[in-house]
Design brief:
Zincin-like, alpha/beta, binds zinc ion, 365 residues, 3 domains, five-stranded mixed beta sheet, Nuclear Transport Factor 2, Chain: A
């Protein structure tokens, strides 16, 4: 996800946004005002100031989520969805009971005239009564009856009513988590965990008809450690990876080892860490020219393989097997990978390739 963002910023970072309104029913003043409200809201994201969500979202939506706009950081956890599409097209605006539903497409048209669609969004705007002003209602709040809740341990699960809750998986997560929390000295915290089986269901939960990447079948997740909030697709009740982000990020997010450590402890994309070691070994056979001395900047030709997390995850494995958590905490303390390799293994960058290749061979199963 972060890599996608990098690409997007490269291509689109300096373009300015345009909004077009091509919906049919322009004669209804309420609909027009709701569209104005929506346009003013997305305009907020082209300014540097923090958006005042309470000004735009209903009290009920703000009470349910610290950031009630579940679409804004859904494609990237740091870059607003509304800035991804250089062109925003409002193609539908209609009263539906006490709301105006606005549908819009965020897209980018390249110089060669190819179009990329980043998101198709649904926004529900409550029609004001009395002295109120227009306010968005979060789709999850509006469609509450379509979802169920289940508390297990200190995790509040939320999922579509059509999905059944797998207690065995929830229990498995608690068992794995308890071991890690004890070893690392973390106090358990309450977590809100939203999960679906498909990417499309997750998108609907967050207010999209479509978002970039929905066509991929791979399990995925995104976490907001400050909010102790997780959205997970395709992994059911036991996405340990995202849960660990909630615990580790507040302390270690600036460490170059943090994400790799989470891959080592919990795996990712629906696979355990051993799978990544094996995948890395296969990758090196297929692309022998790969220079692992540059592992921290290589763009892999395999979208399932994060070379950087796999290499540093292997380093975590080596240190963990020898010294346990104390050694891993030391690794998290390095500011750069260069410092880590030098201090831990007395290796300069040019020597990393041979060293890491040897470890991959050793750990491959
Ligand atoms: Zn992650």
């Amino acid at each position: 996800m972060k890599k996608l963002l990098f690409l997007v910023l490269l291509v689109f970072g300096f373009a300015s946004a345009q909004i077009s309104r091509s919906y049919i029913d322009a004669n209804d003043p309420i609909v027009n005002k709701a569209v104005d409200f929506y346009v003013s809201y997305i305009g907020q994201f082209n300014q540097d100031d923090a958006v005042d969500y309470a000004k735009y979202w209903s009290a009920e939506s703000c009470a349910a989520f610290r950031n009630p706009d579940l679409a804004v950081f859904a494609i990237s956890d740091t870059y607003p969805t509304y800035r991804l599409g250089v062109q925003t097209t409002i193609y539908y605006a209609k009263r539906i009971r006490e709301h105006v539903l606005i549908k819009s497409v965020l897209s980018y048209r390249a110089e060669d005239s190819t179009n990329t669609v980043y998101a198709i969004l649904d926004h529900y705007i409550k029609i004001p009564s009395g002295g109120e002003t227009f306010k968005f209602t979060a789709p999850l709040v509006l469609n509450k009856s379509q979802y169920r809740e289940k508390r297990f341990g200190n995790i509040d699960y939320h999922f579509p009513a059509t999905t059944s809750f797998d207690k065995r998986k929830a229990k498995q997560l608690q068992t794995q988590l308890a071991t890690i929390l004890k070893a690392w000295g973390f106090m358990p915290v309450g977590i809100s965990y939203y999960f679906t089986q498909s990417a499309e269901e997750m998108s609907a939960m967050r207010g999209f008809e479509y978002k970039y990447g929905d066509e991929q079948q791979t399990p995925s997740g995104i976490s907001y450690p400050e909010d102790r909030l997780i959205f997970s697709t395709g992994s059911g009740e036991d996405n340990l990876h995202e849960v660990l982000h909630v615990y580790f990020n507040p302390m270690y997010v600036t460490s170059p080892v943090n994400h790799a450590l989470i891959y080592y402890l919990a795996g990712g994309l629906g696979h355990d860490f051993q799978w990544f070691i094996n995948r890395m070994d296969e990758y090196l056979q297929k692309y022998p020219e790969t220079n692992l001395s540059q592992f921290d900047t290589i763009e892999p030709k395999d979208i399932m393989l994060h070379i950087d997390f796999t290499v540093l995850g292997i380093i975590c494995k080596m240190v963990d097997e020898k010294e346990g958590v104390a050694g891993l905490k030391r690794l998290l303390g390095y500011e750069t990978v260069d410092a880590l390799f030098l201090k831990e293994f007395n290796l300069e960058r040019k020597d990393w390739d041979a060293f890491v290749r040897e470890k991959i061979k050793l750990y491959r199963k």
